[in-house]
Amino acid sequence: MVLPVYLYGHPVLRKVAAPVEENTAELQQLIADMWETMYHSDGVGLAAPQIGQSIQIIVLDGSAVAESFPECADSKMCLINPELEIDEESEIVNREEGCLSLPGLSEGVKRHEKLTMRWMDDNFRKHEAEFTGFLARIIQHEFDHLLGKVYIDHVSPIRKQLIKSKLNNIVKGKVRCEYRTRTAPK
Q1: Closest to 18 (Cα-Cα) out of 57, 70, 55
Q2: Contact 100, 179 (CB under 8 A)
Q3: Which one of 85, 128, 130, 142 is the catalytic residue?
Q4: How confident is the model over 128-139, as pLDDT tens digits?
């Protein structure tokens, strides 16, 4: 089922997500719904808080951008309870980012180009791998959602001031989207 994407300003996007404790039929249905929602919304990643669930689950598939970023080929993953270790020695790159929870906006965000991640997949099998480039960026972006952050938290105060009216419009639901959305309760 395609679920609504919660928009900037909704309190669930600012909560630190809780770890997933057990594999249940409900959890598997939620993951299936997250995949369907992400693909329907033309996203490359979706974190559970973006669909109103404050738990540590991310689905991502960067294959749509693999032509420009080859490291994203065959990157379809479900990440449960991910742990990131950023390579502080890696290059920091500023690239434009957008977000399904902030429709119509994109801003330059500085992120490290390399990280190591430990996680469980949707079968609760443990994994550890190193990621680089744009795939590392997607992972960091989605992981931020689990920490109660959004990408604009990484932009300068001056930039935030310049986009304040756009942010206020998102909070008020005054945006056009090709996918279902939910705004903050009034």
Answers
A1: 55
A2: yes
A3: 142
A4: 999 999 999 999
3-state secondary structure of 99: coil
pTM greater than 0.90? yes
| Burial annotation 11-27 (CB, 10 A radius, 16+ → b, else e) | ebbeeebeebeeeeeeb
CATH of domain 5-178: 3.90.45.10
* Residues 55/173/60/157 CA torsion (nearest 10 deg): -90
d(CA 93, CA 37): 29
Task: Tell me if residue 113 is catalytic.
Answer: no
Name, in order, each residue with C-beta under 8 angstroms of 94's C-beta and a sequence gap of 6 or more.
108, 109, 110
Three-state DSSP at 145 gives helix
In the structure, what pLDDT confidence band is assigned to residue 186 with cuts at 50, 70 and 90? confident
- Count the neighbouring beta carbons within 10 Å of the beta carbon of residue 36: 15
Q: How far, in whole angstroms, is CA 163 from its chain's centroid?
A: 20
